[in-house]
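queue> pop job 88
queue> type: inverse folding (structure -> sequence)
queue> payload:
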């Protein structure tokens, strides 16, 4: 499916083709720290299908388990996470685009959960938590 999106302030825009069957949640502690939340939701976009306007700021993180470097790209103006990819110059083989920046996020429900052993114990039991339609 065609995807489009932008960071919170609109400085970075992206578009590409995504397979909704490949949307995943990552519960690893790196993703928890990098998002400031309990997990990260991403979808892979092939490098030859990925288009972006604006220049993100990159942070290269060495992954805890594999020891491989991973580029984390975010908007230099508003800080929105945009994608992760392998380091190097030029077009990458693929980009793990953050679903939260996509206009089609309602159509991109996760199909798998990685690093579930690191999931916060309350993530799977939120049905019992009081819900407000707006901030309460």
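queue> result:
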């Amino acid at each position: 499916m065609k995807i489009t999106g932008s960071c919170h302030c609109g400085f970075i825009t992206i578009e590409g083709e995504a397979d909704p069957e490949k949307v995943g949640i990552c519960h690893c502690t790196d993703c928890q720290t990098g998002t400031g939340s309990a997990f990260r939701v991403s979808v892979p976009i092939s490098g030859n299908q990925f288009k972006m306007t604006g220049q993100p700021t990159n942070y290269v993180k060495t992954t805890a388990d594999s020891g491989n470097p991973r580029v984390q790209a975010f908007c230099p103006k508003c800080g929105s996470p945009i994608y992760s990819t392998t380091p190097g110059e030029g077009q990458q083989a693929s980009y793990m685009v953050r679903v939260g920046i996509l206009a089609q996020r309602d159509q991109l429900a996760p199909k798998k959960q990685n690093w579930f052993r690191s999931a916060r114990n309350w993530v799977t039991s939120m049905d019992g938590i009081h819900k407000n339609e707006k901030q309460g």
